[in-house]
């Protein structure tokens, strides 16, 4: 049975709420993974996995657990790349579906921006999540749920 994994440390609350409702509505197992305690609704379809603190511990756990066809919610591009390599799908909280055809460009841009930041150039962060982003996320999630 296909399931959803969430890189929950940085996942916006509004996205988690969309996921909670969708998991219960469609009876899809949803696992949130984080290195700090987190409140999740009581549901047989929603679970929380607390992992140790440390660099990429949650990411590594997700990569080990996911299977082809599963959905991973993350804004972490290297994590997205790893789960795509396993045949899973990766969706960011803004509704962008990472694929084999676009992940290399995303990794290259990430590395370029990291190089700029390390040289002292201020690059700024992403804009705040808006209604359009939430709708794009919900639409992509619904497409995946319809295929599962």
TrEMBL record:
<dbReference type="Pfam" id="PF02639">
    <property type="entry name" value="DUF188"/>
</dbReference>
<comment type="similarity">
    <text>Belongs to the UPF0178 family.</text>
</comment>
<protein>
    <recommendedName>
        <fullName>UPF0178 protein H8792_000130</fullName>
    </recommendedName>
</protein>
<dbReference type="InterPro" id="IPR003791">
    <property type="entry name" value="UPF0178"/>
</dbReference>
């Amino acid at each position: 049975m296909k399931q959803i994994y969430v890189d929950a440390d940085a996942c916006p609350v509004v996205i988690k709420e969309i996921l909670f409702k969708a998991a219960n509505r469609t009876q899809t197992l949803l696992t949130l993974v984080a290195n700090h305690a987190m409140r999740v609704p009581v549901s047989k379809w929603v679970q929380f996995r607390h992992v140790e603190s440390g660099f990429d511990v949650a990411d590594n756990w997700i990569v080990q657990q996911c299977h082809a066809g599963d959905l991973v919610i993350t804004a972490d591009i290297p994590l997205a790349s790893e789960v795509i390599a396993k045949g899973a799908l990766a969706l960011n909280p803004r509704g962008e579906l990472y694929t084999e055809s676009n992940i290399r460009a995303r990794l290259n841009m990430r590395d370029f921006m990291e190089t700029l930041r390390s040289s002292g150039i201020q690059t700024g962060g992403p804009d705040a999540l808006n209604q359009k982003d939430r709708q794009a996320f919900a639409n992509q999630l619904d497409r995946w749920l319809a295929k599962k």
